[in-house]
């Protein structure tokens, strides 16, 4: 894509570093001959609506400048349309960019958005009894991990992975088992008590935590990871292993693969790509090829 028009999607409340990345990426995109329309709306809903309108009008690509939450906004407008999403990482986690091999440096990432290879990937589709479907690219968090994400989103310091580490330590004080009812595909529902439930379309969240190390972006399946221990000491010991992905070998961790999973538990709000979605119950489905991304040429 060396000519054409792109929408550049960003967060208007981001800090100075994010604005520097936005300026650098925009300049590089223009250097490739692309025409740019910026979207930095006052609300997430407005941002998604404007992006969706641009996609319906035939924009050539959406370039998300920010973290996984900005990419999440792009998915709400582009899922199943074939319109590609380019990613210029400028957030706390940047997990999808990392999994896709997109460079951290703004100019290099913008080069990929301008000239990269189109790759189709699966997206997770979240549906409930009421409200519109929502899409995600990385991981849906539905337990202790959702509470950690919520706290991390409210913290101003530290940055990156350390923010999630600090939020985890604080939330451990409130750790408790929660009752879940989980249905995999068309199997009978499983009832259990758990602290953490993560549904992975991709392998990582939280700035590189390999919560679902076996998850693939193009296999049409979700990796569901459930931790059933409420022992703070054991969870603290488990925590470092998540970065290596070896936690899945522990006896208190269960991993199941399914195309579709239904989660039920009272009082839990699920997060996906770091964004709050809705309270349980929800049904999550892997939709093969629903997303198109621009990735480095090989």
- Which CATH architecture of the largest domain is right? Sandwich
From the spread of the alpha carbons, the general shape counts as globular
Helix and strand composition category: alpha+beta
Would you count the extended β strands for me? 16
Side by side, the strands of the main sheet go 6-5-16-13-8-9
Helical coverage, percent range: 25-40%
Mean pLDDT: 90
Q: What is the percentage of strand-forming residues?
A: 25-35%
Task: Tell me about this structure.
By secondary structure, the chain is of the alpha+beta class. The chain folds into 2 domains: 112 residues, Probable inorganic polyphosphate/atp-NAD kinase, domain 1 (Rossmann fold, 3-Layer(aba) Sandwich), CATH 3.40.50; 153 residues, Tumour Suppressor Smad4 (Sandwich), CATH 2.60.200. The protein contains 8 helices and 16 strands. The strands form 3 sheets. Strands 6-5-16-13-8-9 form a 6-stranded antiparallel β-sheet. Strands 12-11-10-7-14-15 form a 6-stranded antiparallel β-sheet. Strands 2-1-3-4 form a 4-stranded parallel β-sheet, with helices on both faces. α1 packs across α5 and α6 packs across α7. The protein is globular and about 55 Å long.
Topology:
Blueprint lengths: L3 E6 L6 H16 L2 E6 L4 H13 L4 E6 L1 H11 L6 E5 L5 H6 L5 H10 L1 E11 L6 E3 L2 E3 L2 H11 L6 H11 L6 E7 L5 E5 L1 E5 L21 E6 L4 H13 L8 E6 L1 E5 L4 E4 L2 E5 L2 E14 L3
Parallel strand pairs: 1-2, 1-3, 3-4
Antiparallel strand pairs: 5-6, 5-16, 7-10, 7-14, 8-9, 8-13, 10-11, 11-12, 13-16, 14-15
Helix pairs in contact: 1-5, 2-3, 6-7
